[in-house]
């Protein structure tokens, strides 16, 4: 049996408290640990200064490595990040879809480009400060299977962001703080007098930080003024939809025409907005907030409804295309015609929702027990077993 001293682990040290404590725990457990800081972004266009600036993160990460007495390495993956994550973002927004760059960053960067660089430096594993857990079991064929399980801290569980990882990626992954709650992580950092102990959690796009999204997207997507159309509640009474008879009808989002509502304002480009969005329209005159319920990219129209219980915000089902279905556990893959109940999440921090997965030739349908608010094409739907294992995921097509 290989001793921990012989196992070399690269910790993705970001300068934050979570990855710092991950490194601390691994060193305490006897692993041969080294730190690897990755820079993924140079451009400050659209970024809100003071949030997640990489120079400060690099400085803190160096201090943490020095405090822990572990080797420190630096790698610039910004070209790869732009090609695999940011260009994908631009492409999706241009189509009127809303991507999740954090999910892509984990699949394409942290557990791919970064992992391969760490392996080239002699690492056996890569560890991160994600709040999630991994369990390795023996599969039916005698081979190892890696289970991705929600973090013990329900408020910080980040398994959703890892919903696109493969068995090959999980094999090399370690999540040292997954069984801890955030207050305990802070406590351990203070006890060890780590320079990152009081550092605030980063927010916004992975490695880019908080951004003014329209300004950020204007790097490639030109502004184009259009109209904001409000759809009133009586529209649904006058145009009561026939009950859906097929899965495809259930998953089809309601669309609207210019004549269905009233123009209440202007926007700077439909491609900059997303379903369910409340902020950024700057339109007054309503008792309750207004929310985006539909985007027409071709006609450059945004449709909104007043109130978070507006019927246009809710849908009973969604659809995923066949080539967008991903199984973290390939042995659990559903066959065409099969149906299965799971707990589902369609955005980070959303409480798990009960629903039914139905596999058809044209893809996967997810039918929820209760209609869901703000189902957004381009985002990821992830499905979990009752015990917290994330079994699979897919890109919401509609």
Could you characterize what this model shows?
The N and C termini lie far apart (about 50 Å). The protein is globular. Helix 1 packs parallel to helix 2 (about 55-70) and helix 1 packs across helix 6 (about 180-190). The protein is α/β, with parallel strands linked by helices and about 400 residues long. It has 9 helices and 18 strands. It folds into 3 domains: about 5-215, Rossmann fold; about 220-315, SH3 type barrels (Roll), CATH 2.30.30.280; about 315-395, Elongation Factor Tu (Ef-tu), domain 3 (Beta Barrel), CATH 2.40.30.10. The strands form 3 sheets. Strands 5, 6, 12, 13, 14, 15, 16, 17 and 18 form a 9-stranded antiparallel β-sheet that branches. A 5-stranded parallel β-sheet has the order 3-2-1-4-7, sandwiched between helices. A 4-stranded mixed β-sheet has the order 9-8-11-10, with no helix packed on it.
């Amino acid at each position: 049996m290989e001793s921990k001293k012989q196992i070399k682990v690269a910790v993705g040290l970001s300068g934050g408290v979570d990855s710092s404590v991950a490194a601390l725990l691994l060193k305490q457990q006897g692993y041969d640990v080294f730190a690897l800081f990755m820079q993924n972004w140079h451009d400050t266009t659209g970024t809100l200064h003071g949030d997640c600036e990489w120079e400060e993160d690099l400085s803190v990460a160096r201090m943490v490595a020095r405090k822990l007495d572990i080797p420190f390495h630096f790698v610039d993956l910004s070209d790869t990040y732009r090609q695999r994550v940011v260009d994908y973002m631009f492409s999706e927004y241009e189509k009127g879809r809303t991507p999740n760059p954090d999910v892509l960053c984990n699949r394409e960067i942290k557990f791919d480009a970064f992992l391969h660089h760490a392996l080239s430096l002699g690492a056996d594993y890569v560890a991160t400060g994600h709040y999630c857990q991994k369990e390795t079991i023996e599969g039916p064929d005698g081979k190892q299977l890696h289970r991705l399980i929600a973090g013990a801290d329900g408020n910080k569980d980040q398994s959703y962001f890892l919903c696109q990882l493969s068995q090959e990626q999980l094999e090399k992954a370690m999540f040292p703080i997954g069984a801890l709650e955030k207050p305990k992580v802070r406590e351990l950092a203070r006890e060890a007098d780590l320079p990152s102990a009081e550092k605030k959690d980063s927010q916004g796009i992975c490695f880019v930080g908080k951004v003014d999204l329209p300004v950020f997207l204007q790097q490639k997507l030109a502004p184009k003024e259009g109209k904001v159309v409000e759809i009133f509640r009586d529209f649904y009474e006058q145009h009561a939809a026939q009950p859906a008879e097929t899965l495809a009808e259930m998953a089809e989002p309601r669309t609207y025409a210019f004549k269905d509502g009233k123009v209440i304002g202007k926007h700077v480009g439909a491609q900059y907005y997303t379903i369910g969005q409340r902020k950024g329209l700057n339109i007054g005159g309503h008792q309750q907030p207004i929310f985006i319920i539909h985007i027409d990219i071709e006609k450059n129209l945004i449709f909104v409804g007043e109130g978070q219980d507006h019927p246009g915000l809710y849908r009973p089902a969604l659809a995923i295309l066949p080539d967008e279905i991903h199984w973290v556990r390939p042995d659990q893959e559903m066959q065409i015609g099969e149906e299965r109940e799971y707990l589902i999440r369609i955005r980070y921090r959303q409480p798990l929702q009960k629903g039914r997965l139905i596999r058809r030739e044209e893809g996967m349908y997810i039918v929820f027990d209760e209609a869901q608010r703000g189902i957004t094409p381009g985002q990821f739907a992830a499905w979990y077993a009752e015990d917290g294992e994330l079994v699979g995921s897919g890109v919401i097509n509609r």
